[in-house]
Task: inverse folding
């Protein structure tokens, strides 16, 4: 049995954005105003719900509810899109018995289409009727699009002051009508933590999880992770030790969810763990890891279980990271592949074949230039990815 | 009948790098020392032939011969790879009756394997016997790997001092044993032009052609374009007008070849012409165009003939280019799609459907932020691309 954080209730409804019978609206309601924090896409085009969330959190870092719809992104929709987004807050707030300014919205789906407000309004009473009857898992399912499984994780954390619970849910790469591989995530806790400390915890966790994965390198207009801490456990988290324990628990939770996003990437069959060390800085390590993790040639080789390590080295070489090519050391699955500018004299094809067949492939690159490090989780690139993303509207 | 520049002869041979019966060695010999220029990959890992070419051209910008092998990249092969590369120059020079320091080598194929020198040496006499009997088209075919057609173009240029001829050949994206989508190109003219002026012409042309296309964003360790001008026409090109005419002819030639590379991209079915204008600088326009042209979501939409313009806008938004989202104007196939932060009210699916079905798709983006402009040619991303690059060695 899952131990859900105290003081939250859940609701879902089927508005018809995703096709008949599938829930596409989800609502999380806290029994009291919760410390609220968010991290958002860095895309210059930001979806209406992203702009509205930022506006609400800038006013007051407290919230009562999180609202998600799948099937419609409400991005690149101008003033009309903003007005529609605010109207959905009114509809949801009325059902939840809170004020619209206490509801944080997220959306995922096709870019450029206006929200179907008639369907939204018709489904609102269903959302209200469901409140308290639905589970967190129902909300995790309602935010799915082409995800093949829901992504939900819960943890219990023993703090000096008592036990608190942390719950995370997210959606990853895929849509029924594929558009952007939007990442949406909710993190809930019943710990009693200040908005400022909660925000620090979320930023720390997101940098080490959601911001350290790639499916296709395309940053969505809608990416959002929202986090609520409602204090319903009665356990105050203010001392350094408790804050660190909670931070580590939230970070671990977000890393689990991130792993599942890559595992469930559109058409994906592999999870590459690309660990770059020895870079001149962490930023340079990230640049190198991302060049490798987004390279179509590396990703197709992963899909084909092909130990074609030259593609990894070549992607590193064009990444823009600064290093001496003679100092680079590459290992795959723990096997030394390349150092001092040339391949290992071993029979690499034979040595690497077994580890290339695993779902998880460990790629370790030491640039020999400093102490910067970054680890990226990356999916492979399959024919199914192309099918999913090409066959839309056909 | 093609009008080949005067004073060049050609040779080919089958060493067996690509499988039985297929020519994989090519040689171009100039009757006299020619002004020689090259542009090379910016990858930090540079193949042995790239390093050797740079070394030769740094000593003296003159050459008598261009040597190509396909099927073996000789990249990431250390000191042994350099020694092998130099040995092939000895072998080719002996057949061509020139000195090894006058031969410029290029290679394409699998990264990380040492050259099969026994096969090379065995094929050398065949190369010598072929000299003068083979055609430029034979060399263009010998450099092919998974290219589905040879890429050769010739032009006659009327200059104030008389007529000169320019010939270009290149290989594009694909291998028999697919590894890097290496770009190799040769440009030949019989104009009499100084090494310095010839180099300027090549740089000008390459920036507007080979450096303005993308198949998969993966810059090879071997990319090389070499250019010879042997003066065999007796037409001196030194005055500003003649230099400009020759430069424009070479640029046009390289643009034709670049178009054919994208047209023949691995698994490609489309050529997207991504024209970004109104950027703060040309560099920012390039950053924006490359983000769009390498986006897997944009490329799969092109493959699927899907007018999913939100993906173009989203890729622009994450590109890092600086602009006001409200000032951006997007047109596809001449149809206004997006401006002032929202979609055109027209029935875009209906309007865009015809132009998405063409091989050539025109994407015009005005960022409204300045005068910087860049146009990129980009291929689409198909299931066949994944097959070609995943099924290697399987």
Result:
């Amino acid at each position: 049995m899952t131990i859900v954080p105290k003081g939250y209730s859940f609701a879902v409804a089927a508005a018809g954005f995703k096709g008949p019978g599938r829930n596409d609206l989800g609502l999380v309601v806290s029994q009291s105003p919760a410390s609220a924090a968010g991290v958002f896409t860095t895309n210059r085009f930001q979806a209406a719900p992203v702009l509205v969330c930022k506006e609400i959190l800038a006013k007051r870092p407290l919230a009562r509810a999180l609202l998600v719809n799948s099937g419609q992104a409400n991005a690149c929709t101008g003033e009309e899109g903003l007005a529609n987004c605010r109207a959905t807050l009114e509809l949801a707030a009325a059902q939840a018995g809170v004020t619209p300014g206490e509801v944080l919205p997220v959306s995922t789906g096709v870019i450029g289409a206006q929200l179907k407000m008639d369907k939204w309004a018709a489904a609102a009473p269903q959302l209200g009727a469901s409140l308290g009857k639905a589970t967190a898992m129902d909300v995790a399912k309602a935010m799915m699009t082409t995800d093949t499984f829901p992504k939900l994780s819960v943890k219990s954390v023993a703090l000096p002051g008592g036990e608190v619970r942390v719950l995370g849910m997210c959606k990853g790469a895929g849509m029924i009508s594929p558009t952007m591989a939007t990442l949406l995530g909710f993190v809930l806790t019943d710990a009693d933590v200040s908005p400022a400390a909660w925000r620090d915890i979320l930023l720390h966790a997101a940098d080490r999880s959601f911001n350290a994965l790639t499916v296709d390198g395309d940053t969505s207009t809608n990416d959002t992770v929202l986090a609520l801490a409602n204090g319903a456990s009665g356990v105050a988290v203010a001392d350094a030790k408790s804050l660190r324990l909670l931070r580590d628990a939230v970070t671990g939770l977000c890393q689990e969810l991130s792993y599942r996003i890559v595992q469930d990437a559109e058409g994906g069959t592999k999870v590459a763990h690309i660990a770059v060390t020895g870079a001149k800085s962490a930023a340079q390590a990230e640049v190198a890891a991302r060049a490798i993790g987004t390279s179509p040639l590396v990703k197709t080789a992963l899909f084909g279980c092909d130990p074609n390590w030259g593609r990894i080295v070549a992607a590193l070489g064009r990444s823009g990271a600064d290093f001496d090519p003679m100092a680079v050391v590459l290992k795959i699955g723990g096997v030394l592949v390349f150092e001092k500018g040339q391949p290992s004299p071993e029979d690499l094809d034979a040595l690497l074949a077994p580890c290339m067949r695993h779902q998880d492939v460990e790629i370790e690159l030491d640039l020999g230039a400093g102490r910067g490090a970054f680890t990226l989780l990356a999916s492979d690139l399959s024919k199914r990815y192309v099918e999913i993303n090409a066959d839309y509207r056909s």
